[in-house]
Specification:
Chain lengths: ~260, ~270
């Protein structure tokens, strides 16, 4: 735990030193959702509802999904791939430090900085638009929401670590990241709520972890997820996380067998 | 003037060749990235399909028209990614690390060299995806276009490229004053992405801003509407003036910013 705290503190200081850079990344996470909100606002200027959504509920939906996107989805893949390609991975292999713990602490630090930008923005929106009036959630649902968000953070982190590990075999990882980002964007509900999609797409979303990381927590905030759905979502998340942990460790072991670095 | 233009064109082809040779080293990556890019383009298209399952039109835009707009946006995005992005992403590093010395000492325009020496083939590949969406939408939804409309559309598209290049370039000049911010070139993306939407869905003040102050409507809305002739000649004239003014301004501000540059080398 001491090591994790040390990694966390170092990354936090580094991220804080480059505040403008962190803020630009924050904006980049926010703007796609703003575009979806703008489009839906235009739709709702001509009609009252679309599917089960009113203007208020769609705003809360997107506000939740964008917040989760900012706090859950991490980006360690480029650094991992660069470490593998440049030979810096040797540092992890030679020193008594866990590669995985390092990245968990690292990403937690980045998320803390993002929370620093997100929290005041949400507070302003809540005060000005009276958002709390439209949120129907009890204590039990708050706990389930937070658990889902934590599991989602770990699921996305392990997926991104796996994408970074592709550099053991392929050098370039852009293509794999592109595939995953497209799938995640569509099936997490970040572009459009999954219940507005045709049944075929809803069936695909149901087996992927993205839906339970973004869409389902947003439905909990809207008070639209039954207890059964919440627990089913949690179970699927846990199953995915266990699978990803086992698979990532297996890939790590295979990867370091073929890894080579030169120099002193 | 013509001699100078052909000199720069010749130089650009040299850059292009060198970049293509570099990218050819990673052929399998190129192919896989292209597939990923097509998937990403598909997400944009699915978005409109899903929405238009529930509504027949949004602010006068039908599904077919929205898809044509998406086609234009994808083509625009591909050209930006191929021609500009690879250069602009290096911009902060070049200035911060003092590598601008190498560029300034060359006997050609430093703005040209810093803006166009890199070309990304895999960025360009989505061009074909965009073109396919555009043609498919025109024919499938029976959108009537005229030859004159097509010519105006192409002109508007080129104006959009000049406008975006100039604005983005000027934003990057902040690097001279703010220090090293590696992701500063991303700052323009939120504005660029607005063009994924028809201008009519925005509020009136936003429509005025994106039509006249930052005329980004020339990226996709104007080329799309021009196809069926619903663009006024006054707006086109304004676009021509704005594009050339912004290009001129980008050169002036570049020269001013250069005065703040202090080399890091000996």
């Amino acid at each position: 735990m001491r090591k994790i705290r040390a990694y966390f503190s170092t990354t936090l200081k580094a991220a804080f030193a480059y505040r403008i850079r962190s803020f630009i990344w924050f904006l980049i996470d926010v703007y796609p959702t703003l575009i979806f909100i703008l489009f839906f606002s235009a739709i709702f200027s001509e009609r009252q509802t679309i599917g089960n959504y009113s203007l208020n509920s769609i705003l809360i939906y997107y506000l939740t999904t964008v917040s989760l996107n900012i706090l859950i989805i991490s980006h360690p893949e480029w650094e991992i791939a660069e470490n593998i390609n440049q030979g810096f991975l040797s540092i992890f292999l030679l020193r008594p430090m866990s590669f995985f713990k390092f990245y968990v602490a690292n990403e937690l630090a980045y998320k803390t900085i993002r929370l620093g930008y997100l929290a005041p923005s949400l507070l302003i929106l809540t005060v000005f638009f009276d958002i709390q009036k439209f949120i129907h959630i009890n204590l039990q649902e708050v706990i389930i929401f937070l658990t889902m968000a934590t599991l989602a953070f770990l699921i996305y982190l392990f997926i991104k670590i796996l994408i970074g590990f592709a550099a053991f075999w392929f050098t370039e990882i852009t293509w794999l990241l592109g595939f995953w980002e497209s799938v995640s964007l569509l099936f997490s509900g970040l572009t459009i709520p999954i219940d507005l999609m045709p049944p075929f797409f809803q069936k695909i979303a149901a087996i992927l972890p993205a839906k339970y990381s973004i869409y389902l927590p947003a439905q909990i905030i809207l008070g639209r997820a039954s207890l059964k759905e919440q627990f089913l979502g949690l179970s699927i998340q846990i199953a995915w996380l266990i699978f990803l942990i086992i698979f990532t460790k297996k890939i790590w072991r295979k990867g370091i067998k073929i890894y080579s670095a030169y120099g002193g | 003037m013509i001699k100078k233009f052909s000199k720069y064109l010749h130089l650009y082809f040299k850059f292009l060749k060198a970049n293509l040779i570099r990218e050819a080293q990673f052929r399998s990556n190129l192919l896989l990235v292209s597939l990923g890019v097509f998937l990403w383009s598909a997400v944009l298209i699915f978005y409109y399909f899903f929405i238009f399952e529930h509504v027949s039109s949004v602010k006068g835009w039908t599904l077919g028209q929205a898809l044509i707009l998406t086609g234009f946006y994808l083509i625009f995005d591909s050209i930006i990614k191929a021609l500009i992005e690879g250069n602009f992403s290096q911009f902060p590093r070049i200035i911060y690390k003092g590598e601008l010395d190498l560029i300034l000492t060359k006997p050609i325009s430093s703005q040209f060299l810093i803006s166009f020496s890199r070309f990304s083939l895999h960025g360009f590949l989505r061009f074909f995806g965009g073109l396919a969406v555009l043609l498919w939408a025109i024919f499938s939804f029976n959108i009537k276009i005229s030859l004159f409309g097509l010519l105006v559309s192409v002109l508007a598209f080129i104006l959009g490229l000049i406008i975006v290049y100039s604005i983005w370039f000027m934003i990057l000049l902040l690097t001279f004053y703010l220090g090293y911010i590696e992701n500063i070139y991303f700052l323009f993306y939120p504005l660029l992405r607005i063009s994924r939407l028809p201008i009519d869905v925005l509020s009136k003040p936003a429509q005025i801003i994106f039509s006249f102050v930052l005329p980004l409507i020339f990226i996709s809305t104007v080329p799309t509407k021009a196809l069926w002739g619903s663009i006024s000649w006054e707006l086109m004239l304004y676009g021509i003036l704005a594009a050339f003014f912004l290009l001129w301004l980008s050169n002036k501000t570049w020269k001013i910013a250069l005065k703040s540059y202090s080399s890091a080398s000996s």
